[in-house]
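<context>
A single protein, sequence plus fold
<entry> Chain with its tokenised backbone below
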Amino acid sequence: MKSNAIYTERRQALAAQLADNSVVWVASGAEKIRNRDVEYAFRPASDFYYLTGFSEPDAVLMLKKQLGKLTTGLFLRPKDSEKEVWQGRRLGVEFAPQQLNIDQAWEISELVDTGFSLLTDVKTVYVSFSELPDWMETLSEWVVLHKANSRKGDESIQAIADLDPVLHEMRLIKSEAEIAILRQAARVSVQGHLSAMKSVASEKFEYQVQAD
């Protein structure tokens, strides 16, 4: 796993552009079944990976900005020795805060209940509107419950805002570290293409070139 500093800096830079008393939700996405019990290779959502460097499915990042202070949290899959034999190792709740430099972690099964408690005194909720259909049921439940609590004197959610314009503008502007990574990726790609060109021969199949 890469150094956490770059992801911490990105989260802080994002929070600086958001309204106070707000919460951000960003999901990694779910695995897709290829056939029977075999999944496609998983690739986390780009926004999620940009802010965490974490590549497991079924994870949700939470950023809370309150009185100018940023609090971070992650919901993720629990450790499961049997499933890890077939699906690979999981980071787990215990190790996530230290490994990812976040304040707290919870099991993904706690998202609805714990997520609601994290919305205390929150006025604005940010999610990607491109992922809004996936969030509608949970957001609707939270909003209804918060409206009920507002009668008891708590702040209620006043707006659900699109995270995309702010976050995607950030991703357009590359830091020196990101530019260095892009240059290295380009160099590796060039070497790969040159190597493939040298190994191509008549009556040679693509998988043979790939194996070289």
User: Anything to note?
Assistant: The CA atoms of residues 14 and 169 lie 10 Å apart. Strands lie at 22-27, 33-35, 38-39, 60-66, 69-76, 104-107, 124-127, 159-162.
